[in-house]
Amino acid sequence: MRSFISGSAGSNRYALLAGAAAVALSLPGAAFAQDQELAEPDADEMPLETEEQDLGNVIVVTATKREQTLQETPISVSVTSGETLQQAQIRDVLDLQTVTPSLRVSQLQTSSASTFIIRGFGNGDNNFGIEPSVGVFIDGVFRSRSAAALSDLPNVQRIEVLNGPQSTLFGKNASAGVISVVTREPQFTFGGSVEAVYGNYNTFVLKGDVTGPITDTVAFSLDGSYQRRDGYAKIVNLDEDINDRNRWSTRAQLLFEPSPDLKIRAIADYSRIDEVCCQVGTLIAGPAAGAITALGGQFSPPSDFFEYESYLNQVPTNEVDNYGASIQADWNIGAFTLTSITAYRELENFFESDIDFASVDNSTEFRDQKVETFTQEFRLTSDFDGPLNFLLGGFYFDETISQESGLRNGTQIRDFFELLAGADPVAVLTGQPSLFNAVEAGLGLPQESIFGTALLSDERFGFDNTAWSVFGTIDFEPFDGLVFTVGGNYTDDKKDFELSQTSFDPLANINLVDAFIVGGIAQALAIPPSQVTPDVINGFATNPATAPFFAGIAAAAVDPAQNQLLALQPFQFIPPFLDVPNAVEDGKTRDDKFTYLLRAAYQISNEVNVYASYATGFKASSINLSRDSRPLNTDYIAGPRGSTILAPSSPIRDAGLAVPNLSTGSRFAGPEETEVYEVGLKAQWPGFGFNLALFDQTIEGFQSFAFTGTGFALRNAGKQSVKGFEFDATATPTDGLVLTFALTHLDPLYDDFPGSVLGDLTGQRPGGIPSWAIATSATYTHEWDSGTRLITRVDYNHESNTDINNGLPTYNAQLGNTEIFRREVNLVNGSMTLALNNGLEVGGYVRNLFNDQYILTVFDGVAQAGTVLGYPSQPRTYGGVVRFKF
C-alpha cells in the first residue's frame, strides 16, 4: 500500500528554528505568549505600571475578566497580538493554530463545517445540535456554531486561547476551553488603514478601517474586508475550481463615553461566504470503483491524492450569511464595575454537495439551516484595596435552530446499485429489465420504483435551547503575593427538539425478514399478504396449532440461504424514521450542574509567579439533528436484522410506534463533565520570559461524533482523559530580535469507551491528537534613524506523527482496524515588511514555504464499502502586501 505519512524531512531542516527560543515554565495556566514583542499597549491597555512596560514584552489580557498582565494571569492562556496576525497573514481562526500549539482547527465537509479542539477535546463541526466543547467568543459574545466564527478576523487587538474548562468566567459553559477574540474599540483620534494583498491562485484581499471622534464623547469605527481566491483544486470533468475563497464582511461600531465612569460600545456586523468547498481525494478505491467506471464515471485515483483533482457531477454550493449586533455597557460605581453585554445574532447556512465524490450522477445532499441566538450577560466586579475581591455574573442564552435537509437521487443511482448487487452489466447499460425489476415484481412494488424517486429523504428538524447560569469568583489575598480563588457556576439548560423525516425509497420501507414472515403466513393460511395484519401474525404465532409453523418460518426468514431477500439489505440506506416527539420520546433534555474552581497563586518575586488549581466543567446534552437520529436502546430493541415482528418487548414496540428497519442509536448524547488538575509557573525578566503548565484533564461522557459511511453516530464515551504540559518562552537576545518557542505535549487515553462505533476502545489512545506540537518564531526588526523599519519573520509549526483516527467503521472494521492512516505536520511560514515612517508598508509573505503535504482526515466512502476518501492539506500560498496606516 502507498504510504500517506507526511514527510519528516523538515524536522532536521528546521531544528535550528525550534531551538532558537528560550525555555519557559508556568504551572496550571501556562500562557503561550507568542510574539509578545509586538504587543505595544494601546490607550485602553495603559493601566500597566511603568516598570512593567519597560520590560518591552508585557501583554495585558482579560482572560480572567479583569485587565492583568500575562504573567499575573493564573490560567493557561495563549495570546496572539493583532500585529502578529497581520504579519503572519492569518485571516481567520483556521490559521490561528499555527501559532497556538494547544489549538487545532479543521475545515472539512463545507466552508461552514469546522471543529475547534483544545488539548485534544472538541466536536460539533457537522451537526448544529451538538454544542461545541470549545467556546468561541468575539468581543464577549458567544458564537454558538462554528460557522458563525469563520469570517475574516476584523481589526483584531488580540486573541486569547484559554485552555481547560472556563465555566466560572464565561456564563456559557465550555468544557474544553475558550477562544476569545478581542477587537479594537473606536478611538477618539482620527485614523485608519487600508490594505491590499495579491497572491498566487489569483488571491485578492482588500481590507480597510477608519475610526475617529463624532463628538467629544462619541467615537466611531468602520471596517470591512473582501477576500477572493481561485480554488487550489480542480473539478476536472466540470472544469471548475474547488476550495476557492469568496467572502466579505463589514462592521460598524459606536463608542459612547458620556462620563469617565460610563462606557457603552455598540457593534453591528455582517459577513457573507459563497464558496466552492471542499476538495476530497481517494486514498483507497474499493469494489464500487468498478461500478463507477462501468457507468462512464471517473474519480480521483489514489496515486494522485495530492494532485488536487476531483471528479463530481455538480459544483458544490456553500453559502453562509452571518450577522448580528451587540451592546456592551461598563459602568464604574465606586469600587465596583457593572458590565452588561446584550447580543442578537442570526446565521443562515446552505450547502449542497455531491456525496459520492465521483462524476457519476448518484446522489447529492443539501442542508438549509437557520440559527437565531439571543444572549444577555451581566457582571459585577470589585476593585477593593483590601484582601477580598469578587466577580459575580449572570448569563442567559436563547437559541432557535431550524433545518431542512435531504438526499436527492441522481439519474444513475439505480444503475450504480444494480451493478453493485451483481446485475448483468449489459442488461443494466442497455436498459433491459434487470435485478431490481425482479425484486419489485416479487415484492409487489411498481416497476422502476427502487431508487427511482426524486428524493431519497426529506428532513425537517427544529430545536430550541434556553439556558441560564450564575457564575463568579472570589479572590482572597491574606498578604501581598498570595491569592486564593474560589469560583462557581450553576447552569440550567433546557432543550426541546422536533425531528421528522420522509424516506421515499420503497425498498427501504420494507423489512426483508418481516416480508418473508408475512409471505409465509399468507401461504400457510391461503390468504393474500395484505390480510396478514398484526393481529393475524400474533394469533398465528401464539396458537398452539400453528406456533411450530411460525417458529419454522421465523428461522427461515433470518437465514440468508432460505431468505434470498436478505441480500438486498445493504441497499436499504435510508429506512423510515420515527418522528420525535412521540408517545415514548418527549423530545426534551433537561440538565443542570454546579461546577467550581479552587486555585492558589503566589508571586514568589516581581519576576516569578506560581499557581495550582483544581477545576470542574460542564457541557449540556447535545441533540443529533440528523437523519441518523435513532431511539435509545432503552426505548427500543430491534429484532434480528431489524425485524419488528421478532422484536422483543420495548416501550416503542409495545406502543405500536415501530417502523420498518428501525434501529437504535442516539437521539442525543448526555452531558460532558470535566475535571482538571493544573499547576503552573510564570516568569518574566527584561528580555526573557517563560511559562509552563502541567495538567491532568478528564472528561466524563465525552460526546463522540463519528461518520459511519452513510450517516453520523453520536455517542457518549464513558471517560476520556489527557495528561500533558504546555510550555512557552520569549527571548530578545539582541535589539530588534525576538525569539518565541511554544511546546505542547499530550498523552490522551480512552479510559472507558465500550460503545464506540468501532467497538470497545477502552485503553486505546484517541486518534487525531499528536503527542507533540510546536510553534516557534523568529522576528527581526531593523530600524533606521528615520524611523523606517524592515520587519522579517519566520515561524514554524510542527505536529508529530500520529494516527488520524482510531479506524473507520466500514473500511477498518473489515480489517480488524489494522490499517490506520497517519499524519505529520511541518509548516514553515515567512514574511518581510518594509514599514516607512509615513505610514506606508510594503511586504511579502509565504505560507507553507516547503509545500508540506499531509492528510487532514479520512472517512468511509458514502455507500461504497471498502473505499476510503480524505481531505488533503492546503498547498503553498504566497503574495505581496501594500498597507497604509493613517
In short:
The protein is 10% helix and 46% strand. It has 886 residues and is mainly beta.
Name the descriptors.
Maltoporin, Chain A, mainly beta, transport, five-stranded mixed β-sheet, 12 helices, 22-stranded antiparallel beta barrel, 886 residues, disordered N terminus, iron, membrane, globular, single chain, 41 strands, 10% helix, transmembrane beta strand
Description:
With 886 residues, this protein is mainly beta. It has a domain at 191-506 and 581-630 and 665-885: Maltoporin, Chain A (Beta Barrel), CATH 2.40.170.20. The protein is built from 12 helices and 41 strands. Helix 9 (512-525) packs antiparallel against helix 11 (547-557). The radius of gyration is 29 Å and the shape is globular. The two termini are 58 Å apart. Its main location: membrane.
Layout of secondary structure:
Elements: H1 9-13, H2 15-19, H3 50-53, E1 60-61, E2 68-69, E3 77-81, H4 82-87, E4 103-107, E5 114-118, E6 134-138, E7 141-143, E8 156-163, E9 177-183, E10 191-199, E11 203-213, E12 218-229, E13 233-235, E14 240-242, E15 245-259, E16 262-275, E17 281-284, H5 288-294, E18 309-310, E19 317-333, E20 336-354, E21 363-382, E22 388-409, H6 413-420, H7 425-429, H8 435-443, E23 455-479, E24 482-503, H9 512-525, H10 534-542, H11 547-557, E25 588-603, E26 608-619, E27 622-623, H12 651-654, E28 668-669, E29 672-685, E30 688-700, E31 703-707, E32 712-716, E33 719-734, E34 737-752, E35 772-783, E36 789-803, E37 822-835, E38 840-847, E39 855-860, E40 868-872, E41 877-885
Helix pairs in contact: 9-11
Family: Belongs to the TonB-dependent receptor family.
Keywords: Cell outer membrane, Ion transport, Iron, Iron transport, Membrane, Receptor, Signal, TonB box, Transmembrane, Transmembrane beta strand, Transport
Domain TonB-dependent receptor plug: 70-178
